Amino acid sequence: MADANPRTLQRWQPTWYVLNPKVVQKFRETYVDRGKTDRADAALIADVMRFGRVTPWTPPDPRYAALQVLTRHRRQLSHLITQEKIARWCNCSVSGGSMPIRMSRFSRTSLG
Description:
Layout: H1 6-10, H2 21-28, H3 38-51, H4 63-95, E1 101-102, E2 110-111
């Protein structure tokens, strides 16, 4: 397929399916004598589609995209703050100095 962008494929109105690789792998275990070639893999995936309970993929609601981005960003910031606290604590204990520990309303203890 030379040009496989979504606009080109959209004129045929394809139905998209998402398969769990673990399901395909477990399905493969039922076929003992099948080799590992592209043709055999394609036939195996076709069998999974034929015999399995596979439902078409529906894209997520775009209203939740912004919330997902904000949630991931908050998690990354929280992880970075934790890393910085650990780094500051390690630098303080290595240098032999004392770092004041103050209480914060956002966590149990907050480093200096």
